[in-house]
């Protein structure tokens, strides 16, 4: 969402539940005031985006503790339609405003979701955007959020969150009943076997057989059952993936 106006508050958005992420991108507003006065950016479950210009906060951009992140929004070339009351010819125009900054962040979020093996929750998206943001070249004492949005860093953070490494355990994994979680591991050329262990699992876990092959992604499915019905810890389950006769690099994704 890329609009802003002055008001005290906006109705709260429902918090995301399950695997579906739902949130708003809110332009912080162009009134050079605290974002607490701007709707919808001042609402809960909204990522408020401030505008930068040449590495600093744009003079018109709203600011304050409620801003989550900043993005370029000064003199941005954008598409438009020349018609005013009816469709005209397509064209381009240069605009400035937080309404130009918010789409930058929305685009980064789309990139993040496109590489995510598991759908990202709104809370995860916001946390990754903030943790990977770059410091503004010019200080923003008024408050410009975590910094300048960093597309490359945010996408890398998503990939790292679902990439398994050798002998490194992932703890507290949980999925909705009947749901799945996906993880990937890169298998070097010459690897003879890959073993995935699932110790102390609650519920019913089923893992399919997989074989390593060059330039191919293999999947092993792990389905979560209701933990309310299965209180007893299941025995450790191990999946061994064998390579073909010719050593080759491959990737295994587990869900």
Describe this entry's structure for a reader.
- The protein is an alpha/beta fold and 255 residues long.
- It contains 3 helices and 15 strands.
- It has helices at 98-115, 122-132, 151-161, and strands spanning 5-6, 24-27, 38-39, 46-53, 56-57, 69-72, 76-81, 90-95, 183-187, 193-198, 201-202, 217-220, 233-234, 237-242, 250-254.
- Strands 2, 4, 5 and 6 form a 4-stranded mixed beta sheet that branches. A 3-stranded mixed beta sheet has the order 9-15-12, with no helix packed on it.
- A hairpin with an 8-residue loop joins strand 7 (76-81) and strand 8 (90-95).
- The model is unreliable at 1-23 and 219-255 (pLDDT under 50).
List keywords for this structure.
single chain; 255 residues; alpha/beta; Rossmann fold; 2 domains; four-stranded mixed beta sheet; three-stranded mixed beta sheet; 3 helices; 16% helix; elongated; disordered N terminus; disordered C terminus; Peptidase S8/S53 domain-containing protein; Peptidase_S8/S53_dom_sf; Peptidase_S8/S53_dom; serine-type endopeptidase activity
CATH architecture of the largest domain: 3-Layer(aba) Sandwich
The chain-level structural class is alpha/beta
CATH superfamily of the largest domain: Peptidase S8/S53 domain
Parts with pLDDT < 50 across at least 5 consecutive residues: 1-23, 219-255
The overall number of domains is 2
User: Which CATH top level class of the largest domain fits?
Assistant: Alpha Beta
| Distance N to C terminus | 33 Å
- The secondary-structure element order is EEEEEEEEHHHEEEEEEE
Bin the strand percentage.
Answer: 25-35%
CATH fold field value of the largest domain: Rossmann fold
Give the fraction of residues assigned to helices. 10-25%
Shape: elongated
Total number of strands: 15
Characterize the biggest β-sheet: 4 strands, mixed
Q: Please tally the helical runs, counting DSSP H or I stretches of 4 or more residues.
A: 3
C-alpha-based Rg, rounded: 23 Å
Mean pLDDT: 75
């Amino acid at each position: 969402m890329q609009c802003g106006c002055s008001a005290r508050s906006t109705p709260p958005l429902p918090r995301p539940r399950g695997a579906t992420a739902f949130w708003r991108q809110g332009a912080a507003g162009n009134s050079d005031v605290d974002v607490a006065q701007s709707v919808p950016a001042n609402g809960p479950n909204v990522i408020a985006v401030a505008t930068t210009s040449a590495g600093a906060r744009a003079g018109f951009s709203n600011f304050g503790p409620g801003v989550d992140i900043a993005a370029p929004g000064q003199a941005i070339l954008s598409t438009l339609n020349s018609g005013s009351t009816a469709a005209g010819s397509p064209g381009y125009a240069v605009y400035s405003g937080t309404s130009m900054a918010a789409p930058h962040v929305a685009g980064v979020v789309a990139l993040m979701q496109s590489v995510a093996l598991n759908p990202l929750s709104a809370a995860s998206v916001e946390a990754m955007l903030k943790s990977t943001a770059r410091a503004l070249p010019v200080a923003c004492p008024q408050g410009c959020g975590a910094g300048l949005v960093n597309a490359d860093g945010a996408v890398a953070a998503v990939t790292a969150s679902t990439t398994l490494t050798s002998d490194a355990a992932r703890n507290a994994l949980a999925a909705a009943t009947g749901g799945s979680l996906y993880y990937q591991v890169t298998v070097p050329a010459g690897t003879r076997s890959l073993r995935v262990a699932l110790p102390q699992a609650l519920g019913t876990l089923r893992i399919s057989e997989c074989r390593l092959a060059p330039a191919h992604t293999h999947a092993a499915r792990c389905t979560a059952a209701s933990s309310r019905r299965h209180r007893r810890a299941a025995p450790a389950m191990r999946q061994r993936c064998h390579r073909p006769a010719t050593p080759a690099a491959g990737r295994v994704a587990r869900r």
